[in-house]
Amino acid sequence: MSKIETFSYDNKIVRNFGVATAIWGLVGMLVGLIAALQLIWPEMNFTTQYITFGRLRPLHTNAAIFAFVGNGIFTGVYYSLQRLLKTRMFSDLLSKVHFWGWQLIIVAAAITLPLGITSSHEYAELEWPIDIAIALVWVVFGINMFGTILKRRENHLYVAIWFYIATWVTVTVLHIGNNLEIPVHMWKSIPVFAGVQDALVQWWYGHNAVAFFLTTPYLGLMYYFLPKAANRPVYSYKLSIVHFWALIFIYIWAGPHHLLYTSLPDWAQSLGSVFSLMLIAPSWGGMLNGLLTLRGAWDRVRRDPILKFMVVAVTAYGMSTLEGPLLSIKSINAISHFTDWTVGHVHIGTLGWNGMLTFGVLYWLWPRLYNTKLHSVSLANTHFWLGTLGVMFYAIPLYWAGWTQSMMWKKFTPDGFLAFGNFLETVTQIIPMYMIRALGGTIYLLGAIIMVYNLWKTAKAGTLVENVEASAPARETYKSHTGDHWHRWIERRPVQMLIFSTIAILIGGMVEVFPMLLIDENVPKIASVQPYTPLEIEGRDIYIREGCISCHSQMVRPFRSETERYGEYSKSGEFIYDRPFLWGSKRTGPDLHRVGEKYPHSWHYNHMYDPESMSPGSIMPAYPWLINQEINTAYTPAKVNVLKMLNTPYDDGYAERAVADLEAQAKTIADELRDQGIEQENLEQKEIVALIAYLQRLGTDIKPDPVTENR
């Protein structure tokens, strides 16, 4: 008979992460709502450079993913891990370091992103000092988690813990791989990979950030909290095994489906599509395992708002994991990519799956943390219906907008001309859909505010039980028995679970990424493609700073509708000096890869100063500060040196002449602007000149096929 040991669970760290989840959730949703309103009324950008759409959009995504969902993950993990392992967390100190370190990272993001300090990589916009801080805090979390696992009193590792382990190791690999960069100065770095290679590594990271930060840890929470809330066992142990291993092995291959019809080699696109379709099976296996856990409990579901939140969450998980693979079919992707359909799809996952499950978990936890009843079941039900309606009013108009955009972009007249040759017509057409989307976001935010009030009143009615006394037998060395399921060997050995999970997620990454990095034939060189000049480098960094990538792509796909509208389709060899790549994910404005030399300098000057002066009805914000702010050349030589270190063919010692070359090119452009009627003092020193230099360079390194040009 094992000795009974007494110990306590740490509820305070759970409460802290739960409070952070609720607060950052409101912040992230509010920023998202403001950004949505800016797309309807561009005057809400207030011609203030720190709150334009281009700067708020990455702030919103980072707040939603890493502040709201991230804290939600840690809330659930710190609560469930202790109970599943029958032990307190390995170190209270590490728990506190993890909590405060994560909050400081979020604050750093909230400061730097509006300042325009960004790497521009989707879901990885934070610059290198913050990347290092993320890595350190993530290691602290890992030590605390694995230390807890190793000192456990329970031999068996429950299915939720498998997902926690896979999450930790995969996010570690992704974060390191995608953030290989060389610092230029404290708040600027240049990525090691360029062009097509950078695009593949980014979307290997980007897709799997969704997979292993927004999905696998939440599946772990589903496997713990859904059975707890329903007071029923998980439907199928065997299905959970298949779900886990199939999901983590297949998911890592699917990243290239974000790059269909781009300059990425066809073999990589095809791998992404095939494995994306395969994902339907394990994803729906997990969804069914969750929903069938509720078999026989549907009367409770109708009465219990917590279970209703969880049912909608698991259903949204199933819908988004069906839609994602369908969008990776090339014929469907040709319609959806660069449209608002993709935005709607993403928010079914974030608002429906992550948001609704987080709400359900918080409602379940709070009465237990404070040893009292939930303040108001009625308010929780109200929140449920507001949240559900908010998701619908958000997503459905964006599907409508996406189809509208795609059909208008591709429509030709009987004479063979584009029916909507002016891109702006396709923007103004969908503004009513944007209005409905903003209404949906408002409804969803209102529901979250009600939740915060409900949880606050619940806490006021009780007292936080910081340490929960518990007891359990000391763990004995497990001895296998005849007839044991084969998977028990892995489940009872966390080191093996870690090793096999690592192998499963590394295979797909190595097969896809390594050939792109090591085989030159995957990125054919084009002799006429030259490195950017120092002035163009500074203009490109201004483009990145202002978040232009949020609305403009730089990838003309090989469709007649795109080559007619923009010009020659994009070639992989054109991007070999693009660090980072700037292909974009969404077209709120037109593609810019062939914009070079399409308009006179004065057009770009006036367009940035007052977009409607050039494009009446435009929803683009104005950028008057570019007219007044001077080009910062303090780091131009350092940028040239780093690029040369990365094999950009600048001459030896060119960095010393870089500023002089920049000033000479700036003077040429400024003189041309004056010839075109722009009168401004010291024009050659202003940021607008650098941005014009960059825009006028885009797509001009290759000469279009005359046949294509004359069609």
Explain how this protein is built.
- With 711 residues, the chain is mainly alpha-helical.
- It has a domain at 534-706: Cytochrome Bc1 Complex, Chain D, domain 2 (Orthogonal Bundle).
- Helix content is 63%, strand content 3%.
- The chain has helices at 12-38, 53-85, 92-112, 128-150, 159-178, 195-213, 216-230, 237-251, 266-278, 280-292, 298-303, 305-327, 330-336, 340-369, 377-410, 423-428, 431-461, 488-491, 494-518, 534-545, 560-565, 601-609, 611-614, 625-628, 636-645, 654-675, 687-697, 706-710, and strands spanning 4-10, 181-185, 188-191, 467-473.
- The chain has a two-stranded antiparallel ribbon with strand order 1-4. Strands 2-3 form a two-stranded antiparallel ribbon.
- A hairpin with a 2-residue loop joins strand 2 (181-185) and strand 3.
- Helix 7 (216-230) runs antiparallel to helix 12 (305-327) and helix 8 runs parallel beside helix 19.
- The longest helix is centred in the middle third of the chain and has 34 residues, at 377-410.
- The radius of gyration is 27 Å and the shape is globular.
Highlighted features:
single chain; 711 residues; mainly alpha; disordered C terminus
CATH class of the domain at 534-706: Mainly Alpha
Task: Please mark out the parts with pLDDT under 50 across 5 or more consecutive residues, or reply none.
Answer: 706-711
CATH superfamily of the domain at 534-706: Cytochrome c-like domain
- CATH level-two architecture of the domain at 534-706: Orthogonal Bundle
Largest sheet: 2 strands, antiparallel
Label the structural class.
Answer: mainly alpha
